[in-house]
Amino acid sequence: MPNISTSGWAGHAGRRFGASAVEVFTYADGELPADLKCQVLSFLRVQWPEGFVEGNRLRNWIHRPEQHPTHFALAENRVLISYAGVLWKELEHAGALYKVYGLSGVLTYPAFGRRGYGSQVVAAATDYIRASDADVGLFTCSPHLKNFYAANGWIAMDNAVLLAGPRSASYPNEELVMMAFFSEKGKRARSAFASMPIFFDDDLW
Ligand SMILES: CC(C)(COP(=O)(O)OP(=O)(O)OC[C@H]1O[C@@H](n2cnc3c(N)ncnc32)[C@H](O)[C@@H]1OP(=O)(O)O)[C@@H](O)C(=O)NCCC(=O)NCCS
């Protein structure tokens, strides 16, 4: 089986990201190799079982296609070490429309934890968002990961109010809101995002 760690691998559909010893590969949705996809899904099923109940009991997708996923995977000899997904949607906030990107499903298999691999996939995913047409970045995390994401430029919006779910039936998010401001339009909106309730108008990613 080809090796995707240090020397790349013939015929892969991904793109190498970064220059360190174990590298991050990025894949358009549908191009993530099946064995890597299976390892991502297996981790998600254990870590976030609530995403795999009822209608999603036999879920075989990492992110919904309408969230425009791009996958960032760090693996050695096809063994997945770390992963991050990048998603985007259009979001209306305070009367304006923004292109919002976010991170989702960030993970490191425990045997590889606290060695900088998670930061490496977050850095690659964040660089990708920075180079995109994003106005702002937004996702949620538990408060203990604030510094982990802040190290890659994400800002903890301690007082932001984020409402999850469809606008008509929204409910408050209880995690820490992390944001980044990319375009001029996005930068100008920072105080509006900090001070006015953000209706995500979908399940949080
Ligand atoms: C959160 C998670 C992705 C972090 O992955 P990781 O590969 O351990 O991340 P890193 O090694 O890059 O950084 C983790 C910490 O280890 C520290 N660290 C990095 N390299 C280190 C090293 N060589 N030695 C010791 N510590 C190190 C980092 O400074 C960081 O510290 P911090 O907690 O103060 O920010 C991982 O713990 C995980 O999968 N958690 C479960 C799923 C989850 O909660 N995902 C996040 C969803 S928002």
Could you walk me through the main structural features you see in this protein, from its secondary elements to its overall organization?
The protein is of the alpha+beta class and 205 residues long. It has a single domain, classed as 3-Layer(aba) Sandwich (Aminopeptidase), CATH 3.40.630.30. Helix content is 21%, strand content 31%. The chain has five helices and eleven strands. The strands form two sheets. An eight-stranded mixed β-sheet has the order 1-2-3-4-5-6-10-7. Helix 2 (117-130) links the parallel strand 5 (96-108) and strand 6. The longest helix is centred in the first third of the chain and has 14 residues, at 34-47. It is globular, with a radius of gyration of 17 Å. It starts with 14 loop residues before the first strand and ends in a 6-residue tail after the last strand. Mean pLDDT is 92; it is low at 1-12. Coenzyme A binds next to strand 5, helix 2 and helix 3. InterPro entries: Acyl_CoA_acyltransferase, GNAT_dom. GO terms for molecular function: acyltransferase activity, transferring groups other than amino-acyl groups.
